[in-house]
Each structure stands twice: as C-alpha cells, then as structure tokens.
Amino acid sequence: PDLDAAKAFYTKALGQPPYFDEPFYVGYNVAGFELGLDPDLPPAEGTPTTYWGVADIQSAWAHWQAAGATPDAEPQDVGSGIWVATLRDPFGNKFGIIENPYFGQ
Fold it and tell me: Would you call 64 exposed, middle or buried from its count of C-beta atoms within 10 A (0-12, 13-18, 19+)?
C-alpha cells in the first residue's frame, strides 16, 4: 500500500527507475519481464513463487538483503548444480532467486 516506499526499494535493488510511474501502478522492465507494483493488492501468500535467474546466488542473496529484503529460505543446493533461495521484500511479498547452470543453453 505504500507505493513510494515500494518504488524506492525496487529502484535501489534493480538499479534503474521505473519506465511507468503513476499513482495506480508502477512498472519496471527487468530483462524483458514486467515487475509491476499495484498499491491495491495485498501481499501474495500461498501463490506460486516467482524465481529470478541469477548468475551467482550468493552475490544476489547479499545484494537483495543490502537493498532491504529479508531472508525467507537461505540458498540451498537442490541438485545438478542448481541453487535456490527465497526472500521477502519490505512489504511481505515473497520472491525467489535461482542459479541454474542450464539457463541460456
């Protein structure tokens, strides 16, 4: 519900300003994907977790925490060289990061 705070967090974490910035919606282009902030929606609980592909999970884990996210589930090796972790943004929304050597092949 605090769109200004959410916008500040994601602008810092993503290192870029939103491409669309209105009181009813803020949109970021993240490598061709839409990250949308909607102040009228409650934090998503019990929904599928979206994972962002990262080159180095330990660096991404540290980066998101430095930006203000809190740990949910620490990085873990789930087999075949794939690592996953989940965090929560300052508003309670859960998201994941994944280091997968098979991405881009």
Answer: buried
